Structure formats: structure tokens, C-alpha cells
Design the sequence.
């Protein structure tokens, strides 16, 4: 079993707030992240596939193919976008790194046919990142 | 002469567009960066001071003091903000890295009394950065 | 289940030696790290919490809160300190990265009430790091 | 149980192709990586050892010793080499990161006597890496 | 005056040797870099343009345009190539970082029409890099 | 003219204080850095040589030779040392990054015979660095 990881990147705006909270509760919970006009990040996405290398190629999965899946199914929908407004699969979700990671997993999983999706990691900044393993 | 650099960080949303351009001209010029709902970045700011070290301290400038100036005069105004809407000293300016660097210089320069401000560098992503030296 | 990581940083001096060893045994085992006057590092600490995101916030744990716990319980005790002399919870312990990681875990664990502490990673240099998972 | 990681580095040329494939099949599968005259990378290798710290040293394994094993058994054989031609333990193997990681594991495992080898990670670029845990 | 930098990346094989030298002289001068079957690197290229921002765009140069020039004129010729064999503009040149930087400058300079080319930096590894400013 | 840079690394302890200052003045000026038992850093050193490439080698300076000079004249004296106590060429000097950079320059300059020493940069942390150009 080998774990193969491909890193991708996107830049996006977001705002953290819960419409069911009062304004002051939103500020108490989300602080600066609740700023009404939003802020943004350079996000990194690490997608890990687990599987056995194919003896005829030495690959668990062709990384060109994995790169294309990540690009088509996820990056192209979120890059240079506002995550609260522009992304249909994040509608109704508070766009925390946790929720982005789970949404990314759901977008990618049906398209991985060599090996299996093992982990999605989202880096929001150099100091904050989350990992989801589908459990 | 020694050049001393302090790095700071902020996360912000922005949108690149010129209200004097037509919508299609904005898209032609700014492409994905013109997305109406904005996007965002983790910005790094490198501020360089040039001067002679003070023999009694070995410092060109006390970095705690420089850190506080950068925080008070610049980072606190832009961190977790929307650069098109929330920042008075960027009003009427297209918030490209070039314009952010010049605005940062103008904010900091009056407060540097040990050594002199030599350069402001803004990293928008790992692949794009600009430098302004006040010339 | 989501794994959320927050990175913190401290700079400290340390010296590796075992007072029960002879001087030559200390040099044989710890080599340059046994230098009597000490040396030091910029340490990075990655603290990982595992849990379910709260549906009303999208957070496993509020990272501002986690940041404060790491700062209050660990960083403030070790930053700009000598790990052999200045830190009561390292008294009598050889301050290797292994021992620092276990001490950090014991400091943080009682304070994590959202999710559970999953891992503490200490980077001593870019080339050396250790991870402790409480097992 | 503590997981201790040491990072090493090498620069090497390689070419991905399967002599059992036709030329066009090689290009279809390996694309630019099949270029007949090869290309190359700066590889990073993270070797992780799992074990209990020795109470008399605070070490799971002496990193100087681990560094020497990695250097002698692996880095010295691959650094500034052509992985398709110059490395006897990669003979007959397509030098993908997957196959390099498994070969590295087999080279190192017999020499680890303090703790046990837990993982070998090979970074081919900043965006592509693989991990092998001997399973 | 603003200095705008765009970073690009390529992976390539090379071998350092001078055909006018004897084999032993090549080994004396170039050491491991003279290995007959070559080795390789992940190269980073930082291209800096100096100019005044256009008031209607806030750009010194459109980075999408600069990215395309770097890609078309340089990266596409060297990425996943052997620098001794596959690159016509490096023919007859020992492919040191110094010579690659000067060749890159000569490829790009005729295509820069907004601002002027100020510097080309080539990183061969994290520890070795060179800069050329056209002087 | 090409600028060639080699990066080196050392880990050291230091304490910032001026024996001519009172204890309270030292704390006022140097704050946490004045902690009596010291603290420490992983320092990076970037040494830049300016010169014309030798046409027979493509090198401004053989980096193996530069690496050896940096190692012999500087790194071996400061690595895993206490900069206040163990380093003769820092005796009587407050070991700020500024003073370390100037001391490093004076150690290296007499040994550079290919090209000329152009700059010494000392990174104390990722956020603080200084540069000295011999002026």
C-alpha cells in the first residue's frame, strides 16, 4: 500500500457567520472572520490516494489524471471565487476549512477509480489546516 | 549600513476592476480577478529599514518597535478586511499588489525614526510579489 | 471526524546531557548537543485536535481558543527561555524533542474540551521532528 | 510511542518508461516524463522511526546514527545519479516515487535497531509526494 | 518605480562537464555534477520587471501576460528536458545555473514591452541560487 | 555580472544584553531577549558572491569551495554554540543579527578570491533577517 499525494492551490474570499445567530453572537464566535465584507486566503489542498502501484507503470494513480480531477471537480469551482456566494456545493454551509474539506471529499470521491481516496487536507494559512478521511 | 527586514502577515479579500471600464473590458484586463463577489489572499509584507546599528544595542531599529508600527499603521487596517470596501487609505485605488505596496509605504514612512524605510515587499501568492522603494 | 491543526512557534536554548553520565559519555552520546554553554532552536509546534464539526459553527474547535490554550499553557513557558533551567515542567528531563513533545501533550490535554487532543508535533529544525499521540 | 522523523535530500535524473510498451504507449502513459534524454528532481526523503524514548538519553534513536544510515544506505547511492542507469537496487524498476519509496524502505529496514522503521516519504516536487509504511 | 516578480518552475536533467577538459579534470572541477549519466533538479525561476504602474489597471505588467511569456519562451523549452541535449539555446554551453540565468534573460528580454526586465533568478536547490541583471 | 548565493545553517544560543546597562534598562531594551539563561535560534546564512562566470567552467565561484569556506571560517565556530561565550570573534559584541552579519562578512571576505563578496544575509527567524553589504 502506497499513499500518493497531489497538492493544488486556490485563492478565495469567505466570511464566517451563521444567519441563525444574532450579529453580536456572530462576532463573539467568529470575531474578525465575521467581517461583513469578507476576507480571503490562499488555500492549499493536499489530496491523498491509497493503493498498490500498478506493476506496468509504477503508479498508484497517474498524477496527471488526479491533477485533472482535482482541477475539474474542485479548484475550477472555488478559485478566485467568493465561497459564500459563488459555489453551489457550499450553499447553506459555513465555509470553514472543516466544511470545505468535507465538500472537497464529496466532490472527488466518485471520480477516483485507481486506488481509493484516503485523505483531503485543506491549509487555510501556514498555521491552520484540517484533514478529513471520510470517516 | 545594515538592512533589517521584518515580515508581517494579513488575510484579505479583494476584487480587481476599474469602474471606468466596461464589464467586458474589466474581464478582458483582470480576468478571474474581476469576479464580482471577490476572492482573497494570505498576504506577506516584508518591511526593510536601512541604517547603522546603534553601538549600545547592536540594533538598527528595535524590531519590537518596528513590529508595532507595522501592526498599528497597516496590518490592523487590512487584516480580515475587504480591500475594496473596508480600508480608507485604499479608497478609489484598484487594490493590486503594486498599489497596496505604495499605500503601505506611505502609511509607514512617517513613523520610522531609527534608520530609514528602504523597501516594502508584498507577496500576494508564493508566485507573485512586488517591491516598492519609494522612488 | 476532522483533524484540525494549529501551528505555534517558540525560540529557546537547550543543552543535551545526562548528569548520570561521565563527561566523555555525554560527548559520545550527545556530541555537539552537549556543548556546556548550550545552543538553541526555532521550534515549531503543531497541535492536532480530532472531533466532529459543530453544525452551528462549522468548527471542531475554535482556533482562537486553541491558540490561546497553546500560548498560555505551553509557549509562554518556553519561548525565549533556556529549557534546561527556566521551565518547571521540564525539570529533571533531558530536553530532547521527544521529551518536549510529551511534556507539551501533558500541559495541553487537560484544557481541550472540544474534540480531543490527537497529536503534538515538535519541529526542532527543518530536518528533525517528532510526533506524540498520547499512546 | 514517539514518531521521530529525519529529512534527507538528493538530486537525481530519471526517465519514466516501460520497455514492454510501444513508444506511443509510453508517451500516452508517461507524457513529458518519458522524454528519452530524461529530466530530474530535487528529492526530499522523510524517514520516520517509531519507538519509546530511552530514559537515559531521551532519544528514540540517535538522529546522528539515523542520518548516517540514510546517507550510507540510500542517499550516497542516488545523489547526483541517474536513477535508470546508476543505481543497482533500482535496476529493472520504473523509477516512480512509489518505487523509489519502496526501494528506500528495503535498504533502510535491516539497519534500524532502535525503534522500528515506520514510514518512508519521498517528495518528488513540492506538489507530489508518496508515503510507504511497509504494508 | 515598482519591481514585480513572477515565479515559474521546471524539472530538468543536466550534467556539468567541459569537453575540452580531460575526464579527471572534469571530475576535479565538477565532482559529482560530472556523473556521465547526469542528475537533475527542480528549478525555480523568479523573473522581475521594473516599471511604473499603469493608473488605469494598477499593474506594472499584467502577470497573466508575463506568465505566458515565461512559459512560451523558456519553461516549455526546458521543463522535463535534458539541458545538455534537448535545448537549442543551451547548445555548446555548460548548463550551470549562471549560464541558464543568462540564457533565460536573452529569451525573455525581447518580449517584455511593459516595464523593463530587471532580474532573472534561478534556484537550483534551496541552498544554491544565482541572479542576473543584464549587466 | 552574476550574483551567486549559497545558503548555510547553524543552531546557536544567545542572550541580548549590554553590561553597561542596568538590569531594568536591559529588560526595557531587549525584553524577552535579555532572559539571563539565554534562548536560541536556527539561523540561516545566505552568502552572495558577485562576478563574471569563468567561460571554461560556467561558474562565478565553485560552490563546493564557497561551501567549504563558509563552513570552515564561520559555521564551525558558531554551530551548536553559545554566541555570548563560545565564539572568539563575537567577544565583547552584543550578538544581534546585525552584529553577527558583520562578523560573518569579516570572517569570509579575506578568503573569497573568485568574484567578490557582495552580501551576507542572516535569518534569525522566518520573520526577522538582516543584510550587510560591506558598506
Sequence:
Amino acid at each position: 500500500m502506497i499513499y500518493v499525494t497531489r497538492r493544488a492551490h486556490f485563492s478565495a474570499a469567505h466570511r464566517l457567520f451563521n444567519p441563525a445567530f444574532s450579529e453580536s453572537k456572530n462576532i463573539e464566535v467568529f470575531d474578525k472572520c465575521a467581517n461583513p465584507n469578507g476576507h480571503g486566503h490562499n488555500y492549499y489542498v493536499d489530496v491523498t490516494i491509497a493503493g498498490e502501484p500498478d506493476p506496468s507503470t509504477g503508479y498508484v494513480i497517474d498524477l496527471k489524471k488526479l491533477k485533472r480531477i482535482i482541477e475539474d471537480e474542485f479548484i475550477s469551482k472555488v478559485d478566485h471565487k467568493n465561497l459564500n456566494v459563488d459555489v453551489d456545493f457550499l450553499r447553506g454551509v459555513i465555509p470553514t476549512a472543516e466544511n470545505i474539506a468535507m465538500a472537497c471529499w464529496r466532490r472527488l470521491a466518485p471520480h477516483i477509480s485507481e486506488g481509493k481516496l484516503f485523505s483531503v487536507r485543506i491549509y487555510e494559512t501556514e498555521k491552520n489546516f484540517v484533514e478529513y478521511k471520510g470517516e
